[in-house]
């Protein structure tokens, strides 16, 4: 292993925010210093390996009032994945609470208290299922202890059931409300003494009994998102940001702006140091009595920008650069066998290049936050995925001790990775500071969201295979060229980080004897950020499209060929194939199980009726992908109808291990299909002269009801035991959708799609 | 000052005449169930009813609305969640993040008003609101469920 490899591994192992802690000191030095410190320590996995780990103390997560209402504190952020419902379900089940008496409260950003709160990486239930079960069970035990003490009987003789503690021998019973005060002063039982429910006794976990806890508020307009936050005397702001990343204000004339009725003040925000991490882009803020006045005032600003070093960034020329890089030998990130020798002996060679553009998360609620500073204390209300990072960055940037910074988390009107970065909250904080601490709400317009995002990377994926006489690959070469998310944290890195390479590239489970994967250099010219499923999107698109191309070259059925390429059911240690990251999970607990991957492929194929005869113009495609330690396959049917591409049906199968909230798993799969179909067929962010070319949903095209798959069938592959570790749910549905659709287009038309979005490429 | 009739109540609002109705409803009247999503009538998150017609309030200036016109927002659709669409939304657990759903429900309510028994094609043609979470198939099912239940 080279020194360079070691550095990158270290950066990934520190995990996202540990990594940031290093960067916050001003350079990569701490991160580089990490391996030698760490080598002495035992490597931590799962929630143990996350900043601030986990908590399971019932006093943190459960409160019961004398009227019997149970309030579960949810420390993970709700953005549509249903986590507020699912976390409360888990606690309520072990607590044996009556669901009609369960409420949920949203935790403030405070990881020392709650454990890790960074809601991304499809980790909430994966990491907190067991701690939340223990919190519920401990609270139940405390209720039982309180009842036993009150009745003067051994605790073994009482039991809690559905919001009541019973003493069967004497028929005595007390409801949870009556016991609440006494239970609170009971000792918290030791973790190892807790008796968790046998899964056969689960009332909510794994059942479809519980509706979405916020649904009533949502359907009546009462649900509060970041953009809805309000405070007395609140001012409203929008910000004119540099049109090119890295640009800065050369001069500003705000005379006309200040004439706009309702405009109060114009405030400059300093440009960030590069790498800019989560800092605002800088620019000119217009503060007004209402949002419309602020927008009108911003339109009237006369700003001369210095565009900075990325003013020539254009997507067409950048694509050519990535292609050139992918056609030359590059840094090897996985090597198995001798690809060159096997390639030379192969009876047939196939190669293909795929292009996957930038994307914007574009959650329906754009970034928005309210911040006020009063008596030296800062309070924020914001739609953030990472409230602790928000708190820390506010404290640093505003120069206020962290203990005096409060971050209240609202509902998120979608996140998809965009709201992992609190730049917009820092803007509100800086403007509030400039306004003497007055409450200021910053709202991003849709144009702001599309022009100043943290974009999904752009990539060229080049694959070459050498096939034997049966048409199976004996050599596999994959070069993945894409600017890295690391570029927002470190000065000008050129290579993908282990967590990006480990998203479906180096850990692709292929039954191929000779494999080499390479990562050419790529320079970032804009902010690159997490987008739902992250690097799995390009890696899965390329690999699963290429598999279908090889099947065609071999004259074989794509589904059978895919299964043969996955190979027989076996357990792969990801570290053996070059993935030391493994989504932060213990490779012993979470090896790659190709039997599970095979099963989802077979399930999706059976679901869509693979092999059935189809009308003219229809085609079926399939793709299977392992990500976020879950297994997903998608089978898609497309229909070319004149110049339209219609998607009559998609079957998606997931094996995510034990299921906590099956209906929310189904809804995440449905949503992943829609988002995957959008990025496959129509969505693209492109740059010209450093500027994003798309302005709004008229040019950044996302799936609507008329272009959505007409039917989506979700297959949940059952887990045999709740003793199995949980897989992710929020993200793994997305990656196989685009290749399944592209493969279906090929089946329907003979037109091979190597560039996303598909748009009208199927028209020959 | 302008006068608006929203959910049966007359509100005097102090806003520039070119202010889109959306921002008046959200900031002057204080009803935040109506959402901003794009500002150019593309996404429908801001959908309200004006005299029963689904209208994208982000692109309608205050000056274009008269005091006599009846504006209904999601908060006024039914005071007790009894509208068949709200019930269907609960029954099928349609929302994910929920942000676009008030606009979706308002658009669907106007659709059912005009067409009590919409086909899939009618729904696809009329429901042009964007949902990034991807709840479209449940929206479709919920509209049909509400339609069926309204027919009794």
Automatic annotation (TrEMBL), chain A:
GO terms, molecular function: oxidoreductase activity
Record Gene3D superfamilies: Aldehyde oxidase/xanthine dehydrogenase, a/b hammerhead, Aldehyde oxidase/xanthine dehydrogenase, molybdopterin binding domain
InterPro entries attached to this UniProt entry: Ald_Oxase/Xan_DH_a/b, AldOxase/xan_DH_MoCoBD1, AldOxase/xan_DH_MoCoBD2, AldOxase/xan_DH_Mopterin-bd_sf, N-heterocyclic_Hydroxylase, OxRdtase_Mopterin-bd_su_IorB, TAT_signal, TAT_signal_bac_arc
SMART domains reported for this sequence: Ald_Xan_dh_C
Domain Aldehyde oxidase/xanthine dehydrogenase a/b hammerhead: 220-309
TM annotation in the entry: none
PANTHER family (UniProt xref): ALDEHYDE DEHYDROGENASE (PTHR47495), BLR6219 PROTEIN (PTHR47495:SF3)
Name of the protein described by the UniProt record: Molybdopterin-dependent oxidoreductase
Organism, as annotated: Microvirga makkahensis
TrEMBL record, chain B:
Keywords: 2Fe-2S, Iron, Iron-sulfur, Metal-binding, Oxidoreductase
Cited PROSITE patterns: 2FE2S_FER_1, 2FE2S_FER_2
Keyword Kinase: no
Domain 2Fe-2S ferredoxin-type residues, every copy: 1-77
Pfam families named among the record's database cross-references: Fer2, Fer2_2
Gene Ontology MF terms: 2 iron, 2 sulfur cluster binding; metal ion binding; oxidoreductase activity
Coiled coil: none
Entry protein name: 2Fe-2S iron-sulfur cluster binding domain-containing protein
Organism name: Microvirga makkahensis
